[in-house]
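Why run this: before we spend reagent on co-expression, it is cheaper to look at a predicted model of the complex and decide which construct boundaries make sense. The entries below are exactly what would go into the expression plan.
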Amino acid sequence: MNRTLQTMQYLTKSLKRVTFFSIFVVLITVIIADYIFYKTGGFDPGRPIETRSMAFELVAGSFAFLIGLKYFRPNFNVALANGISRKTFLLANLPVAALIAVVFPVSNLLMIQIHNVFSPISTMSEMIFPLITGWLWSLLFQFALYFMLLIGGWFITFIYYRSNALLKWIISLIPFVFFIIPIVDSQFYYQSIHPVLKNSIMWVFHQPARPPLLMLIFSAILAAFTFLLIYRAPLKD
Amino acid sequence: MSRIEIRHVSKNFGNTVALKDVTATISDGKICGLLGRNGAGKTTLLNIITNRIFADQGQVYINDEPVIENDKIQGTIFYMTEKTLYPKETRVSEVFKITKGFYPSFDLEYAASLSDRFKLEPRKKISSLSTGYLTILKLVLPLASDAPITIYDEPVLGLDANHRDLFYKELISHYNDAPNTVILSTHLIEEVTRLLEDVIMLREGAMLLDQPVESILQLAYTVSGDQESVDRYTADKKVISHETLGRYKSATLYQTRTAADDELISQLGLELMPAKLQDVFISLTN
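The model came back. Tokens follow.
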């Protein structure tokens, strides 16, 4: 059998359990949300029936990111232990990541369909961005989001893997810069950065095709960078 | 055919020189010993052969194909390392199944039979295995892989004498059935001497020897007897080690022995014995 197929088969088996666990957590989140809704009188027949949004993307997206972060490196070790090249390993990971990125939204949509029989719910993105209408767009949006987060997990894992101690510290501190800037120089932030961010977000969500397309383009860029990082990566302890 | 050619390989780790222009050939279907003291560069060389790290200079070829990022070639090698590369929560039986996925020729029945003989429990997780049993698990994998090239780095680490004996017997029996290329990197030279056909010896990252064991042992011999006679015989010869006990002396030499030498040994009444590979190793690497 082709070495890429062998690796894909291994990766699918290796990530099967955590993928189902993630779906289980999403389900539990829905149940808890329903329980809170019930406890606060949400299912009162006297109240008008409203579509509620649930944090499907938040939970599934967090798991997609964690899968990318936690499993990429151990699987890299297993691949090298079995004579798989770095290129083949990365190529085999892409369709498996795509599969996970499909399984998550499909299971979310199934949950929504079943739930809608009793009480209407929707995803967060559908509520926040009304342009995302219909199950196909929702599926595409979520697919692109989870795929990007998975690859983002790989990228961060390998940035750390290839960095020395100093660089690891610098990378770890980068996210805090975004929190510190508005506090340290609020005038600069609100005059220069905030309008750019706001306009960019507005532009992205102006067309329903833009968010998934941009996320997929960003995924491709991250995958390319991950390849550059993994290409000559030595095996470490 | 699985001929390994190491051509001018050098590798540094920061300021530490791990390998210095190493060139060697490992012939097809031979059991080759990779010997050297701690830090001599054995594991570094094996890691380069198996694409786990990269050489700074030089290249390794298997059947004239470079090994770097070569799936086809790497699929013909099974490398047993000191490091455990599987997640610690993986069960022994799962490791076998994973290996079968990557090496279709991996014999699950043989692996089960070996596990049984070594008393390795397939249901145990890697994290719960002792050092010895972890080594056994790592030994079962290359033995059952049926890969054309199997590499063992410290294969008997933490094994008791019985398990070591069982491993050597199994290795020989397996080799007799399918004479693939085997590389053994170990410090227990005396135990593996009977298995080895070729030897590569490294000292401080540099190549010291790349020869058949037979020709090394043909060159090395020990003479013993009266101190004066031994000194007279060894006066103009390459002595690699010697021991003195009172008036008794033994000296190990490393050079071609001629008929004239044999005659002189006889005339001086010295005892002639074959040298041990370990003695040659100690002398050459000191």
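Chain A has one domain: 3-162+207-231. The interface with chain B takes residues 1, 3, 6-7, 9-10, 13, 74, 77-78, 80-88, 232, 234-235, 237 of chain A (CB under 8 Å). Bring this page to Monday's planning discussion.
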